[in-house]
């Protein structure tokens, strides 16, 4: 297998893990929160944090490494517009994901405490959940556009920035 194909395979695989894990976590956490069942909310938050550490974090690290290696191996100009735009959007998604990760850890801890004390979730949990939800929207949209840029490499964005 050539270096290019290996890098491409790793890049596609890690992007799939990043996007799929993020979407799966978001769906199961959101739908479980809606149930109002504290034990389920606790377990889902615990598993969401665990999945982010096991799957999302390595994919987040691997994406730029394989992406920029592919740019180099394929001979694309580093400052081609589509690469710059994709990089900026990836950073936007990351800027949303870091607080989301912190929010998930905080919500996990609140859910544990509420479950242990047999209490309802405090209003603060729901405030964090709202922020968590709304941060997911720009992150999701940014990654959808990054996928499109990686596949389409649109002509109008092939020229390097001046």
Overall mean confidence score, pLDDT: 94
What does the largest sheet look like? none
Class by helix and strand content?
mainly alpha
Shape: elongated
Radius of gyration: 19 Å
Tally of DSSP β-strands: 0
Helical percent range?
A: over 70%
Seen as an oligomer or otherwise, the chain set is single chain
The stretches of 5 or more residues where confidence is low (pLDDT under 50) are: none
Q: What is the element string, with H for helices and E for strands?
A: HHHH
Mind explaining what this structure looks like?
- This protein is mostly helical.
- The chain is built from 4 helices and no strands.
- The chain has helices at residues 3-35, 38-74, 81-116, 123-152.
- Helix 1 (3-35) packs antiparallel against helix 2 and helix 3 (81-116) packs antiparallel against helix 4.
- The protein starts with a helix and ends in a 10-residue tail after the last helix.
- 27% of the residues are buried.
- The mean pLDDT is 94.
């Amino acid at each position: 297998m050539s270096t290019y194909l290996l890098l491409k395979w790793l890049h596609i695989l890690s992007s799939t893990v990043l996007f799929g894990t993020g979407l799966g976590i978001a769906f199961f956490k959101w739908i479980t929160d809606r149930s109002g069942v504290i034990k389920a909310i606790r377990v889902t938050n615990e598993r969401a944090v665990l999945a982010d550490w096991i799957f999302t974090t390595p994919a987040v690290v691997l994406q730029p490494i394989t992406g920029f290696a592919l740019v180099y191996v394929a001979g694309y100009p580093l400052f081609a517009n589509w690469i710059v735009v994709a990089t900026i959007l990836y950073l936007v998604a990351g800027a949303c994901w870091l607080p989301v990760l912190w929010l998930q850890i905080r919500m996990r801890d609140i859910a544990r405490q509420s479950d242990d004390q047999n209490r309802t979730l405090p209003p603060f949990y729901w405030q964090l959940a709202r922020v968590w939800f709304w941060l997911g929207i720009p992150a999701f949209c940014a990654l959808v556009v990054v996928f499109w840029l990686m596949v389409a490499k649109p002509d109008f964005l092939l020229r390097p920035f001046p």
